[in-house]
Write the structure tokens for this entry.
Amino acid sequence: DVKVTQSSRYLVKRTGEKVFLECVQDMDHENMFWYRQDPGLGLRLIYFSYDVKMKEKGDIPEGYSVSREKKERFSLILESASTNQTSMYLCASSLGSSRHEQYFGPGTRLTVT
Amino acid sequence: AQTVTQSQPEMSVQEAETVTLSCTYDTSENNYYLFWYKQPPSRQMILVIRQEAYKQQNATENRFSVNFQKAAKSFSLKISDSQLGDTAMYFCAFMKHDLPGANSKLTFGKGITLSVRP
């Protein structure tokens, strides 16, 4: 079974703090993704990576950065957290093949106060 | 750019009955994939069913089936014999068919909350 894990289920941070969200997958997947999920808006893609040290912006990259130093790990960084970044953050991974099915982590509910 | 529309925010169904969740999409692509994902309350998002656009036959997975109408750009999910464990948020999603290793991004709809009543 594919397993995608995220470092925290719940996180509370203060405005202006630097925040790291970690995601690890154990299936040697090439692609990894970060989404945020907000009520009424569905899932929106923040960043994705198709190889180590490679990244591409998604639909809402502003205020975020990412890091992928190893194939299995993809980090989302909030350089200076703001209250409008309070959200559920979902990580996903997929094979770089025609299967293209994405496997999701359990999510991190981040609250910025 | 692709868009995915789920116009019903909520639905409710009696246990053991059948329910259909609607999804429409807009794209100029000819080859693509469509997905339905399920997110149970406080649990992980999982894939329910997948459809390749070049296949005319509708995909089926046990109690779950789709009605894929390419010309109408419609992709509905039918759940037969609904069970309490089907209570969840359901997302319709679209992906272009790219070459292996290309950027396989999903575009999601806003989701629909399905409640199964005992």
Notes: Chain A touches chain B at residues 30-31, 33, 35, 40-45, 48, 50, 56, 58, 90, 92, 94, 96-98, 100-107 (CB under 8 Å). The mean pLDDT of chain A is 92. Chain A is about 0% helix and 55% strand.
